[in-house]
Design brief:
15 strands, globular, two-stranded parallel sheet, alpha/beta, single chain, 12 helices, binds S-adenosyl-L-homocysteine
Length: 407
């Protein structure tokens, strides 16, 4: 039975942070290590205060400066006036039969995003959103149908991890621990480059969540220039939403392919994983009946990626209201996987999780105040208008970045 919890009781509100009225205080969740250090140095404090603050916020889950007892009273009072620790509000929590949990976080102006926790025997994976909606128009994705509003700030991205941790700590089955994070929620993470990189840095920072780089995965539909830039600033695990064995099919279902075709994308993948370092890229491949699921497609796919250290993750298509595709049959998926394996490609089929609460891949919709007016248009994407952030990682990114969206 699916359980839905609406967060209105004082008890739960007490666990989550107090709703902050809009004000000029900086949100410390926007700061990665370097920015936090700069912040304390500017206050005239020693750099190690940054380590203390990261530990309080992320390891102990403390958001109230008064509880940070190793900071002097003067520092705490100063912090109260200029800073805050503020995460988006959880307004709804749904739990699936299979233990998957989905949260709806409300943002300003009626926007909302979704985050999903997927428990497995050997891990607990949090699927995190990077944008309100998505500017890309993958034809089989529910988020894409919602249109796009804006990029999430670093605080709103890492805040999803913070809030999920806090809520799960006090749930009855408190063995639920986040061991892995995948940037596979709403949005295209590489179109929100700076904020996503800062948030992933916090996920991996030993004084914050301390996850290993193998346990933090960025998933992209193929924003090639941003993928090339990512290598210079991060070495998280890479997943690529390939979904097609040739440009003809991919142009149709993942339209960013018209701007960055498969050949360019695969070159960028090779460059990122840097074969010498024994890393692999995961190619995601959604199984759409009659579109990309024939044996000839599997053979074509195998030939395409045979020189790239990689594995293929077949994703059964998850339907959503208004979707025109059908999921391939189990037989077709199995045949596809066997064909890949026979060609020497490691291939697995992703188990669908949380579909009873619309928490499965591609079903996340949140609430998007669509700035692209997508529903009023024919579903085509003007690829040339996609803007990719080109500046260096901005460590002082307290302000939300609005680049990287459809202009
Ligand atoms: N924009 C990024 C992050 C989204 S990740 C990306 O494209 O990689 C979500 C994964 O689920 C992607 O591989 C996406 O293509 C896939 N997906 C989207 N809609 C789906 C659906 N309806 N059924 C199954 N998988 C879907």
């Amino acid at each position: 039975m699916v359980s839905v919890v609406l967060f209105q009781t004082p008890y739960v509100l007490q666990i989550l942070r107090r709703k902050q009225l809009s004000d000029n205080r900086v949100n410390l969740l926007n700061f990665d290590r370097q920015a936090m250090t700069d912040f304390f140095v500017e206050l005239g404090e020693k750099p190690f205060r940054a380590t203390q603050m990261l530990k309080w916020i992320y390891q102990f889950g403390v958001s109230d400066f008064d509880e940070m007892t190793n900071l002097s009273k003067a520092v705490r009072e100063n912090l109260h006036t200029i800073a805050k620790v503020s995460v988006p509000d959880v307004v709804e929590q749904q739990e699936s039969d299979d233990g998957t949990i989905k949260w709806l976080f409300s943002l300003e102006n009626g926007n909302a995003i979704e985050t999903v926790f997927i428990p497995e025997n050997d891990r607990g994976t949090l699927c995190v959103s990077s944008q309100v909606g998505c500017a890309l128009e993958c034809s089989f994705c529910s988020t894409a149908q919602q249109g796009f509003n804006r990029n999430l700030s670093t605080a709103e991205i890492i805040g999803q991890v913070w809030a999920a941790n806090q809520v799960m700590k006090v749930m009855p089955r408190n063995e639920r621990v986040i061991s892995n994070v995948v940037m596979m929620g709403m949005g295209e993470p590489l179109l929100n480059f700076n904020n996503v990189v800062s948030a992933m840095d916090l996920m991996m920072d030993d004084n914050a969540y301390g996850l290993s780089k193998r346990r933090v995965t960025i998933s992209t539909s193929g924003v090639v220039p941003a993928l090339e830039r990512l290598k210079a600033v991060s070495d998280v695990a890479l997943a690529v939403s390939l979904h097609a064995p040739n440009d003809e099919i991919r142009d149709e279902i993942v339209p960013i392919n018209k701007k960055y075709p498969i050949k360019q994308l695969l070159e960028a993948c090779k460059f990122y994983i840097d074969a010498e370092h024994k890393r692999k890229v995961t190619f995601e491949y959604v199984m759409l009946e009659g579109i990309n699921d024939q044996v000839k497609h599997a053979k074509q796919l195998a030939a395409l990626i045979k020189d790239i250290p990689s594995k293929v993750n077949l994703i059964p298509f998850n339907p959503f209201p208004g979707s025109n595709y059908k999921c391939s049959s189990n037989n077709a998926i199995d045949r596809f996987r066997q064909t890949l394996m026979k060609s020497g490609i490691i291939a697995t089929t992703r188990k669908t999780r949380g579909d009873d609460i619309d928490a499965a891949c591609g079903q996340l919709a949140g609430k998007v105040v669509d700035k692209t007016k997508r529903r009023l248009r024919k579903p085509t994407v003007s690829i040339n208008s996609l803007k990719v952030e080109s500046k260096k990682v901005d460590k002082n990114n307290n302000k939300q970045s609005h680049t990287g969206r459809m202009q």
